[in-house]
Specification:
The chain has 7 helices and no strands. By secondary structure, it is mainly alpha-helical. The chain has one domain. InterPro entries: GPCR_Rhodpsn (IPR000276), GPCR_Rhodpsn_7TM (IPR017452).
Length: about 210
């Protein structure tokens, strides 16, 4: 559990403290996720709701690994304009999806820590493995849908830029822009809100434990 706590601290710093990821934090995050996935395979680690959320958090870094592989492939092989635009958009959207999944799962872990600290008995029926798996599945589904929407929007932008104004891609471009504008705006506001909520939760937990 100490290793898992260190991993959570690393992830909180990477996604909720640092304003943007850098090569060092990304590399450490990938190593931490790989190590955590190995630890969670051990029979010594009990299956609890927190470990389910941490496991899903570690798996989110598969998206980062995929983006690294994609970047290497793009730089190694020459690609056409359309393929390069698709790869560039996919690279950015994979990293965005990883960030969104990680922030949401970290917030779920923080909320569970809050329940354990202040409502241990009352929240026992809520803090189940089944609910943790359901929460992880919902987060992955929503963020995957968001990623697909962003990817379609980026592709249509590239297509409409090279197409005549009467091309049907223009109509699709306007529709996709409107459809993706809302989640793009909400994701920025949600990121700020999650940072504030997480700080508040751990502030409350820290001073509650200090008084004890």
């Amino acid at each position: 559990m100490k290793d898992l706590r260190r991993y959570l601290v690393l992830k909180y710093i990477q996604y909720l403290v640092l304003s943007s990821s850098n090569a060092v934090s990304t590399f450490l995050g990938l190593l931490g996720s790989l190590y955590t996935m190995i630890i969670l395979q051990s029979a010594k680690v009990s299956s609890k709701s927190t470990t389910v959320l941490i496991s899903s958090l570690a798996k989110a870094d598969i998206l980062v690994a995929a983006s690294v592989v994609l970047e290497v492939v793009v730089q190694t092989f020459d690609a056409g304009t359309t393929s390069a635009a698709f790869a560039s958009a996919l690279l950015q959207n994979l990293l965005t999806a990883n960030t969104h999944i990680s922030c949401l799962l970290l917030s779920c872990v923080a909320f569970e820590a809050y329940l354990i600290t202040f409502f241990p008995t009352e929240s026992r029926q809520l803090r189940t493995v089944r609910n943790a798996r359901l929460t992880s599945m919902i987060i992955w589904t929503l963020v995957t849908a968001e990623c697909v929407l962003f990817q379609a929007d980026d592709l249509l932008k590239a297509s409409s830029a090279a197409a005549p104004t009467h091309n049907p891609y223009v109509v699709l471009f306007h529709f996709s822009s409107l459809a993706s504008a809302l989640p793009r705006s909400l994701s920025y506001l949600l990121g700020i809100l999650l940072r504030v909520v997480n700080v508040y939760i751990y502030y409350k937990i820290f001073f509650s434990l200090s008084k004890r």
